[in-house]
Amino acid sequence: MPWPRHPLLFLAALVAIIAAPRYIPKLHDWRLFDWSTVSRVIDFQSRKQSQLPLEEEQARLRPDLVPAKPGANRFVDPTGSLNPFYAALLKAEQHVPGAVVKVLHFGDSPTTADLITADVRSMLQAQFGDAGHGVYLIAKPWAWYDHRGFVSASSGWTIDPATNHAQQDGWYGLGGVSFTGEPGAWSKVTLRERGQTRLTLHYTGQPGGGKVVVAIDGTPLPTLDTSMPRKTAAHETWEIPGTTHEIELRVEDAPVRLFCYEFEKDATGVVYSSIGLNGTWAGVLSSYTNGPHWNEQLREAHPDLVVLSYGTNESGYSRYLDSTYSKDYQEILRRIKTALPGTPILVMSPMDRGARESGGGIGTIQTLPRLIHMQSRMAAENDLAFFNTFEAMGGEGTMGRWYQAEPRLVSADFIHPLPGGARIVGTLLFQAITDGYNAWKLDQMRKPVAAHAPKSRPVANGKESSGQ
């Protein structure tokens, strides 16, 4: 009797779908099955009795209280590379006219959902002032793309994230995604929180480019014509009412290519842009994006701080770490330093990444500490600040504790934090920023005192006099 053809084809396709994310980096976040759990099903082991049940239960319920290593929640910045950033924060805190502190936070999948970054943004803006939301994409490249305070809907777009390497010219704008729309394509953004007063649209001007109509609560703004004699990365800025609730964009008469919105307020304070690419790795910014184009986007943004929060996806591929990872990461740093000489850069290590162990517990993936050490070394070699997120959140086994917590702080992949876990990491980053800022302010206060302190002078008996 011949084997049934269609069921076999189905099973073969299913196996291929399950196995592909294990071997293809770009598909890592689409895993359907964790192979490491097979051994636990075959060889089940009961939970061992604890000698300290009360203490373990308290740690399980509140893993955010597990103490980190001393000093782990602070920046490593021996050269004071963040001092210009702190100086900008001081101006915003003092409400100096025009004092706006811009932060570009580049990251992977948690950043696409504005996790961690939303909490840092809200805390910084509560202390230093709210100068606007920052970068927001034209449409959702991924179903879970979301920013706190924003709701979006769209139709008719061809969406190309830089991770897909679909645009031959490597142009993806500051947000890392290219949106091509035929006539009739539209995008709608609803602002849950009012107050944004300036809207910028980043796009490609090109021969034959179409027109874009942007309406604010139903009232159209002057039409934007994206047609230009030669291909150019361009932007258009409109002043909008602070009461704006809905922004609708529609393409007319010919195709257009857009990149992102940018929202700001007429106020002093912080603009914190969350720029995430799902499934990204160091090779995307170093190779998939066009260097001169990305440099131009960085210069136009004119940030006071650039945060690089990558490494989770790379940590699953030891061969990549052994071969080209350092080269790719160094190229990212080189590009940023070329585009923004003197601008502070913060290298932020990935969070813990959990993995099932043979005994049934949830430990840390073996390659992660090595990757974090590589990032720390590259930050030191380039005189950049470094934040060891992994150690600050509790070190090895943190995701295991988070997964067993009530409520859970991380999803079942032991990688992506849930809102509660993201809030912990966001708070740690905010505390590191404010600790560094307060230490810098204290040092600034000491300098005038030291400069005017009376100098001691020698006296006849060999002792010193204070001069008083």
Draw up the topology in text.
Blueprint: H1 5-23, H2 38-42, H3 53-61, H4 83-93, E1 100-107, H5 109-112, H6 117-128, E2 130-132, E3 134-137, E4 150-161, E5 177-191, E6 198-205, E7 211-216, E8 219-220, E9 224-225, E10 232-239, E11 246-252, E12 256-264, E13 269-276, H7 282-288, H8 291-301, E14 305-309, H9 318-323, H10 325-339, E15 345-348, E16 354-356, E17 362-364, H11 368-381, E18 385-387, H12 389-392, H13 398-404, H14 419-452, E19 457-458, E20 464-465
Parallel strand pairs: 1-13, 1-14, 2-13, 14-15, 15-18
Antiparallel strand pairs: 3-12, 4-5, 5-11, 5-12, 6-10, 6-12, 7-8, 7-9, 7-11, 16-17, 19-20
Helix pairs in contact: 4-14, 6-14, 7-10, 8-10
Number of helices: 14
Q: What share of the residues lie within helices?
A: 25-40%
CATH architecture of the largest domain: 3-Layer(aba) Sandwich
- Major sheet summary line: 10 strands, antiparallel
Gross morphology is: globular
Rg, rounded, reads 25 Å
Précis, in short:
This protein has helices at 5-23, 38-42, 53-61, 83-93, 109-112, 117-128, 282-288, 291-301, 318-323, 325-339, 368-381, 389-392, 398-404, 419-452, and strands spanning 100-107, 130-132, 134-137, 150-161, 177-191, 198-205, 211-216, 219-220, 224-225, 232-239, 246-252, 256-264, 269-276, 305-309, 345-348, 354-356, 362-364, 385-387, 457-458, 464-465.
Q: What does it look like?
A:
This protein is of the alpha+beta class and 468 residues long. The chain contains 14 helices and 20 strands. The chain has two domains: 51-129 and 268-447, SGNH hydrolase (Rossmann fold), CATH 3.40.50.1110; 134-267, Jelly Rolls, CATH 2.60.120. Strands 3, 4, 5, 6, 7, 8, 9, 10, 11 and 12 form a ten-stranded antiparallel sheet that branches. A six-stranded parallel sheet has the order 2-13-1-14-15-18, sandwiched between helices. A hairpin with a 2-residue loop joins strand 7 (211-216) and strand 8.
